[in-house]
Specification:
Keywords: DNA-binding, Transcription, Transcription regulation. By secondary structure, the protein is mainly alpha-helical. The protein has 2 domains: 58 residues, Orthogonal Bundle (Arc Repressor Mutant, subunit A), CATH 1.10.10.60; 154 residues, no CATH class. The chain is 68% helix and 0% strand.
Amino acid sequence: MDDAGFAAPAGTREDTRMRILAAAADLLAEGGREAVSTRAVGAAAGVQAPTIYRLFGDKRGLLDALATYGITTYLRRKTEHEPGDDPVEDLRAGWDLHVGFGLANPELYALMYGDPRHGSASPAAAAAFEILAEHIGRIARAGRLKVGEERAAQLVHAAGSGTTLTLIALPEQARDPRLSHLAREAVIAAITTDVPVPAPTGPVGAAVALRAVLPETNALTEGERILLHEWLDRIAADDAP
């Protein structure tokens, strides 16, 4: 697998777990999700099926662990770089890295985002969303977010994953690199301002700005902070024309 970079040591319980994940990663890359059966993984890793069940619970648990390991490696690289002076540019870089990861690891990416679960995300996708939410929070604290943080993060996530899955589905020679660029810039234009807004006008702008800096105050009790956070979320969400 191009970016996941599994190692396959042997020995301890964790070594056995990693060996199984390495075997599953190879099968996934070569034959897709259908190739990742417990029988095939066990044969490739040199373990019996009960060992897989003991470590991962079932096939769904194995697939979740595989996706989580892959995205953890990706996120580790993504967070190696210090944030720049411009959080919007950092969001652009994060988008490009996300799309690049998906194109380099199509089967793993499809495992993470191509099988949505009602009411919840896969553990791997949830970890990636947390990083995205941090990017959006930095933009809000810089006074450049013009919609609520949650809505902004959901829009970037929907557009980014949709663009990546669309490109994965196309033959490599038919992929237009401008598609990702246009989608990225359209989303950024929809959620950010060109320059910081020193004094947000109207309740929505004020709520977005206050929500972004709320963690910096110690004047509220935990209950008051939760209540105010809920109020600000409701005001910030009222941004429809």
